[in-house]
Every structure is written in structure tokens, then in C-alpha cells.
Amino acid sequence: MSCIPDHGEIMLLYADLRPTAVLAIAGAGLLIHYNDEKRAIPKGSHQQTNSDGSKVNRPAIGGPFKLFDMEKNLVTESNLRGNWTLMYFGYTSSPDVGPEEVKKMAEVIQILESEHNFKITPVFVTIDPQRDSPAQLKAYLGEFDSRIIGLTGPIAAVRQMAQEYRVYFKKVDEEGQDYLVECSHNMYLLDPNMEILRCFGVEYDALQLSNAIMMEVKKASK
């Protein structure tokens, strides 16, 4: 299943670290920021069944990736199969929204375990691999919850994964090596088959997000 906009939010955006333009995909309600030289690869669609039995096509999101964890081990989508996953794309130098979202992720996994006896794999994918080394990710995420898996890698590999997941990010306010990264802040819920079931925006608090995740888990178990 693909990620469906929730509460009118835009699903996801993708941008390179160079100047971007905006492409509107008819009928999908999806905006993709793309590089002047290389547009996002069309992903096709998945067929989904509505509650009334009708079939609808949704834009496909997600795909294979090869990154490294905080211990410098290679991690691919295959390593996450078999478990429910909560994934967030961010960067450790984020001054405001980023830390709040990571804090929320930490609270969510605690709520799910303590109140629902449900374990989910929390994954933080950096969109700033130039500064976010495995050691930096380990130190940063350890301040929130050591169970959060940090992923980084070559710039090209991060860009490719962001493209696959329709994540928007772009450097802004550059002054030498100092810069911010403008980005989307959605979290993704992936089932054990690595299919994205839901996207969650910043308007969800930890309790609301936990409840929404359990609703999806219960639906999938029927």
C-alpha cells in the first residue's frame, strides 16, 4: 500500500541539494521537487482496495536502499523486513522541528511497548550525510532513545533513497560549511513487507500517533 495524505496534508516532496522546480502529477495529489538535470524517477502505482470493494491506484512510494548504521554496518530494506517500522528523515543539526520529531518517535516506541506490548523498529535517516557521520548519529540519537537506528551513507545513496520515498530536502542559508536543510517532516509507518501504510505529519502528538499506528496494525491483522 502507498502512503495516503492524512488530514489534507501534502504527502511528500523530494528535492536535490541544487536549485529545484516543481512538478505536479495529475490525479495523485503529489508534488515532487526535482533537480534541473535529473527528475525524480516515475514510480508507477499500487492498486488498493477501498472499504466498499472498489479498486484505486495510489502512487508507489519507497524502494530499495543501501546505507550504513551507527556501527558502520551495511543496512538495506531487507534488514527491516519482518518488523513494523517507523521511519523519519531528518538531520542532527536541525534547530527546531527535527528534535521535537525525534523526541516524539522516542515517546511513541515507549507508549507502544508499555501500553500495547507492541514493538516497532524506529529508523532515523539523515538527509545531511556530509555532517551526519555514524558517530554523530549515535551521539545525537542516544540523547533520545538508544533503540533508534540511525542511517547515513554517501550523498548519492541518500539522495536516491529520498527520491524513492518522495522526501523533500534542500540546503538553505549557506555560509561556507554552515547551513540549514529545508525538508519535509513526515513519519512513515511501514508494515513487515516494507510497504508504507501511512504518513504522519507534525500535527500528531505521541499519543495520537501511537493510537493511529495500532489502528493500522489491527487492520493488517484482520
Automatic annotation (TrEMBL):
<comment type="similarity">
    <text>Belongs to the SCO1/2 family.</text>
</comment>
<dbReference type="Pfam" id="PF02630">
    <property type="entry name" value="SCO1-SenC"/>
</dbReference>
<dbReference type="InterPro" id="IPR036249">
    <property type="entry name" value="Thioredoxin-like_sf"/>
</dbReference>
<dbReference type="GO" id="GO:0033617">
    <property type="term" value="P:mitochondrial respiratory chain complex IV assembly"/>
</dbReference>
<dbReference type="InterPro" id="IPR003782">
    <property type="entry name" value="SCO1/SenC"/>
</dbReference>
<protein>
    <submittedName>
        <fullName>Protein SCO1 homolog 2, mitochondrial isoform X4</fullName>
    </submittedName>
</protein>
<dbReference type="GO" id="GO:0005739">
    <property type="term" value="C:mitochondrion"/>
</dbReference>
